[in-house]
Fold this protein.
Amino acid sequence: MQKYQSFRLAAVWALALSSFALIGFLLHRMTPRTEPWTFAISVPEAPVRGTLDLTKEVITPAGETSFVHGASSVAMQDGGLLTFWYRAKYEGANGAELISSRFDGQHWSPTQVVTNSARVSGDIGITIKSLANPVPFRRSDREIWLFFAASRLSGWATCEIGLIRSLDNGATWGHAERVYASPFFNISHLTKSTPFLFSDGRIGLPVYEEMNRKFPVLLVLDADGRVIDRRRMGNGGKVGYQPMIVPTGPSTAIAFVRRLKSRKPKSILISRTSDGGQTWTVPTPIELPNPGGPISAIRYDSSRILLAFNDDAQIERNITLALTDLEGKTYRRVGVVALMDSEDRKHTVAYPFLISSAPGQFDVVYSRPMKTINHVRFSSAWVQAGAQPQTATQ
């Protein structure tokens, strides 16, 4: 009996020491480093070119009956697209898949399953129920990283972030990996917005936490994809989520933040940094409305940002584009790229994701009644022709 108790005590101590060692290791990995907090700034070429027509397609196969949502895209070298979304019986259902399709400028390829919840479970050794919000990041000419949210149980608050990589521009994919956003349980972090680069090669990954209080977070990853720093945006509290970060200078950036459903006024929120992302201002409303949907934004040229948003305070009725200055203080509405089919609230147009696929060429992908993923392509000539008179905000 005494030997058994001694063995049990030793086992408890061994478990405790192992746990402390793991926590210490994770805290060490996430301790702020001394690398310069400056953004890699690449001012895009924005020649006024192209037609004044919008090109529109449905990407998903005809007769799709599953729930499809959370579309995103990455540009290909030929000006085409590789687009991703997640598919399941319903939102959060067991057995979800991450799907891709390739656009060559004329046609969309048949869909490909990138991975699914069962495969991710086997890769990381933890049971994963569902997947959501794939977000691509071009690491090199041939390498693409795909971040995504992986839910362990019912509800998105149990998510952690996964990463899967392709070395051949999305033709094949490796095993899923865990992204350790927190040393304690590593849950309640989700993806939605485009990653970006720091000047020293580190990667900024905008994410958000959903456990109890929703708030935006900036994760800083090293060149291998390991989290080495984590910055809470918005000074605590329930301040919004799904930050879309656009660097505007070596040390400056603005984040367009999705408002909480309960928050008033029903407007887009903006947070700013002047120290390379180390600290962020409390998100404050601007004059552009927000029904509680995400915002997508990119650098348009040397002095402006282009954003896609739902231009309605109540419902995701349309997807509108607008131009704003680099401080987010003035804006010009450009035009509408998607509209609801009817006044039925089940026919919303949701989750716009905007990229520039070539100089003077832009693409938006989005969900329509959560049964189709849709694509709109437009030109810089269309943007310039549609820009309305400037309006000031705060």
Summary: Helices lie at 2-29, 117-124, 380-386. Residues 2-29 form the longest helix (28 residues). DSSP finds three helices and 26 strands in the chain. The mean pLDDT is 90.
